[in-house]
Fibrinogen C-terminal domain-containing protein (Patella caerulea), 352 residues
Amino acid sequence: MSTYNVLQFLLALYCCFRIIICQQFHENFIRPDFCTDKVLTSLESYLTFEAGSAIQCAAICSLDENCLSVSFKLKEGKCFLNFGLLADDCGNGVTLADSVYYKKGNAVKTCMNNGTLINNDCVCYGGYVGTYCERLMTDCSEGYREMYRTNGLYEILPIGATQSFTVTCILRYGPGRTVILRHFQPRHKMNRTWAEYQDGFDLGITGRWIGLEKLYWLSRSKTLDFNIALEKTKSPFVSVKIVYENFEIGNSSTNYQLLSAQLNRARSEINVTDCLSSLIGSSFSSYDMDNNPVQGLGCPAQYGGGWWYNGACAQCNPTGNLHQSGGARTGVDDEVFWEPFDWTPLGINIWL
Ligand SMILES: *[C@@H]1O[C@H](CO)[C@@H](O)[C@H](O)[C@H]1NC(C)=O
Ligand SMILES: *[C@@H]1O[C@H](CO)[C@@H](O)[C@H](O)[C@H]1NC(C)=O
Ligand SMILES: *[C@@H]1O[C@H](CO)[C@@H](O)[C@H](O)[C@H]1NC(C)=O
Ligand SMILES: *[C@@H]1O[C@H](CO)[C@@H](O)[C@H](O)[C@H]1NC(C)=O
């Protein structure tokens, strides 16, 4: 593709799908009448091509911050993108009959979706990002990169998702976490129904599950790590992290089958059993929807939670019950555990 084709393609994208932005760009162009029939020298014109109108010419200029002004030769439909500006009195211009000149005015940017213009930058809210707050973040880490720093509920639209939805984001520190599971309160039980695991549940800040449908849309890009932190001691707070890469699950037609998860031992803080790799291929289960290919074991009821189980359940139990004091304790099926540890976590946190 030539540069011009690329610009035209971008213009088509912007003008067909982002009409409002295009209008904002157009409004920024000013036409000083007394500069009619004047153009910059060819040295300052970096791109010349045919365009349908002066507005189209200006819209293409608006896509490139190095373009400061345009000249448009009306009869020939010729567009000149300029690195420079004509002087205020147009004195440095070269005469070119039948042409008009537009320069980029002082930005009069309009922020969308309730964004606020501060120092000519749109400060966005509620999960919106972009120069004009024109779109939703794809996950919480994008929100962190876009300078969101407050933990809370945000609207996101993962790549490929057909609908946006709300998730809990931890943004006070980088790189920004999309919360999958939080369980820090022993009186909260994660032994819940299929419907609750599918839709998600919220027991306050110490207890929540994102919901399998949302997890499916988030996991499709396989670009987010599946991080598990097991809390070892309360004061001082010590937790150890396990990192899985390329995490992906299937959609509801497969009962959210675990498709991919690769343990990265180098990035993990403890030497754990690779619990997830032996579960690849299994569907998610809850006590009222046991999808274990080996029938009759009743893993969700025995383990007291929802997870991917295969055959003899799993070598970890992230959604089990929490024991009040944690510490050395093994062999209790319905408590949170991760083999081969001989300690029971005081809490568990999973995020993408
Ligand atoms: C913007 O603010 C208005 C008024 O408070 C509200 O009704 C609307 O939902 C907000 N829009 C977004 C995208 O947050
Ligand atoms: C799940 O994905 C498969 C394959 O992409 C598709 O055929 C099916 O319709 C999807 N099911 C749902 C419920 O979206
Ligand atoms: C991790 O644990 C396994 C099994 O207990 C052991 O064979 C391996 O050497 C350990 N790796 C490290 C890096 O400690
Ligand atoms: C989980 O709930 C089911 C249904 O109420 C029950 O049969 C099972 O014993 C419970 N499991 C645990 C570990 O509490």
Summary: The chain has a mean pLDDT of 86. The two ends are 37 Å apart (CA to CA). Residues 3-104 form a domain with the Hepatocyte Growth Factor fold (CATH 3.50.4.10).
